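Handover notes (outgoing to incoming on-call)

Open items:
1. FAD-dependent oxidoreductase: sequence verified, structure written out, both below. Nothing else pending on this one.
2. Nothing else urgent.
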Amino acid sequence: MFKSIILYKTQGDFAVTERVEAEVVVAGGGPGGICAALAAARLGKKTVLATDRPVLGGNSSSEIRVWTRGATGAGNLYGEEMGVWGELKLRNLYLNQEGNPVFWDDVLLEQVLSEPNLKLYLNTHISGMETDGKGRIAWVSGFQMMTEKELRFEGAYYIDATGDGSLGAMAGLPYRMGKESRDTYGESFAPVEEERATFGSTLFFFTKREDHPVSYIAPDYAYPRETIEELLGKGGRIANEKMDGCDYWWFETGGMADTIREAQEIGLELKRFTAGVWDYIKNSGRYDADCLTLSWEGNMPGKRESRRFITKKILTQQDILEHRAFEDGAFYGGWYLDFHPSHGFKTEEDNCTQIPVQVYAVPLGCLYPTCDSNLLFAGRDIGVSHVAFASTRIMNTCALSGQAAGTLAARCIELGKRPGDLEAEEIQGVQQTLLRNDMMIPGIRHREERDLAREAGVSSSGAECRGALLETGTFSLSDGGILVFPRRAAGTEFLVESGQTTEVSYQCYRSDVPSRLALGSRVGTMKTVIPEGKSWVRFPIPEGVADGFITLEFSENQSVIFATGEEQLTGFLLGREDSPRYCYPCLKLPDGCGLYGESNVVNGYNRPWREPGSWMSGPAFGEGGEFPWIRLDFQEPKTVREILVFFNPDLSRELNSSRASMWDDHHKFLPRTGMPPELVRSAVIDGILPDGSRREIAVLEENWRRTWRVLPPDGITVTGLILEIRGTYGASRAEIFEICVY
Ligand SMILES: Cc1cc2nc3c(=O)[nH]c(=O)nc-3n(C[C@H](O)[C@H](O)[C@H](O)COP(=O)(O)OP(=O)(O)OC[C@H]3O[C@@H](n4cnc5c(N)ncnc54)[C@H](O)[C@@H]3O)c2cc1C
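FAD-dependent oxidoreductase structure tokens:
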């Protein structure tokens, strides 16, 4: 189906030039490029993904081994990025629970190879193109190592996901490298004067403990141990025998150089430094490192920053911190504004400064230039200021930008329009496609006219209305804490024990999506009396807060202890601002609050937004042979061609490509040790035929996905659908966020 024509042979018998026709051509196989390519291909566009490495994943690949992080890692609860990237991360969790970076490569390759509309070209460095000189590209070309082929890719749209923005630069599109001045966008975190400096690059190593001593003689180029000793300890830079891989994110240099033109020098400097650190760990006599050796050492520097393009909209600090809404909002970010010193490991400045942010929207306008171009951007080269980039550069956000770019390209091809010429409803069409494919756009509901579920009557075997009563643990306020609950369930009673009658005061915050670090808008200070002994306690909130999540912030209290359990009710969490270890409070829901009612599955939100937004069955899964079910009834028979069901993979816990060893204190990260208990593992959908009989439409077994997509062959005419949940990965309740029927 991919037409590939040999155009001519060059240089005797050495190289051939081959033409490949596609609709969307994506350059760069990192998070941005993979998601762009999969998104465009899944929307039916003949897509090429060309990357210059032998493996997919960009910085997350086993060649570099940066672990994927995002909004949840920066404290945003229920913030885990889904869509195409979420599917890859869940597949990784299913196949690769140890977080081995080598198997992450396999996951990416597997999904790319399984996509019929997508053709992958590895080892292909795009280095040429023909343009009209104004931004429109006729073709791009790249040399593929090992095949001696010069490949010429022709498409209607091109997506630059190279990180460096190589296609944009070749096309002559305007870009920036370095930091804008404070006045450029009025950003208080920007330097007063503009600077050419960027974030630097990094090489990692992984260690392994043998059962016998292993010697290490450093190569001549290694930094001497004295130099390493001088650098260590400054600005939080630590190294020891327990650290591995991403723990060494602070091995950073090159920010004061040109991260593109001087990439080789930066890489060699990093080799000198990493060899020096390893020599120091092995041979300084300060560590228990006799039996330690290196199991892997990086050679391909991970590059943090290079070109950022001048696009229709440049995202800024204010857009992020004020959670500005955009008519063309397309995806979201939620990582910290995470600034690294450009001098890298050679400075005494803190190795990073992280300012927590709440989930914020990023518009389509950041993905395309203002001129008449058929080039879009994805990943770290999109149009953001350096300050905003400090957040958007995180891989999960880069991946979401890729899905948005792939979707936008596909739609522009269908409409025969440039992105900047799309009418409001065409932009809404792109947004609805993104939402249907499991993206989140802050504040925008999934509302498609053709979704038959919207008009259906919804009923179920029962919705959770009591609460989580089973007590298995405790959470003390001795170091303070935060309690999150939905405004709609403000009368909830929590099981609390106190050694004495005490008055507890707390700050109250409101947010659309809760966060343990950027708590939201402060709405007041309240207090409540906790009686001596164990009792059910309500925590009143100020009047006038109509909706959203409420976060209560408690200061230290030595006598108050919350009872906790294993049952997670989405929307309720207890924890501390400085830790990702959340507890699930024992609680009694207020009568009639209807928090987890059936109608939530057709409310247009496929994840928590202002409230949990899910249907949750009562406990006692499968008791007496009865499985929880939810049912849609149409007013008249409908022909159903597609059903989408969105499950809960616990969006408050990170899904990572790989792991570092110092996970908790150092990274505020809690590794998953198994599939999320809440995720539905097996289920069945039956159709109710017009004659009233039931017919099985689909069976799901060993599910690992967040979205179950059912395509009844040739469609099926039904008056209703019944979804029966047969099993989860451990949760005693079944939970569904959204059901769509087309
Ligand atoms: C050391 C370090 C630590 C970081 N820490 C984290 C972290 O903990 N978690 C996190 O999520 N993010 C982290 N980041 C940021 C994150 O890794 C990057 O911002 C992200 O990978 C960018 O994604 P991307 O798809 O735009 O580009 P990349 O991941 O850089 O992928 C681009 C791909 O395109 C290829 N390519 C480049 N030029 C061409 C060309 N001309 N033709 C064909 N292919 C080309 C590259 O080889 C690469 O494979 C870190 C980055 C670094 C360097």
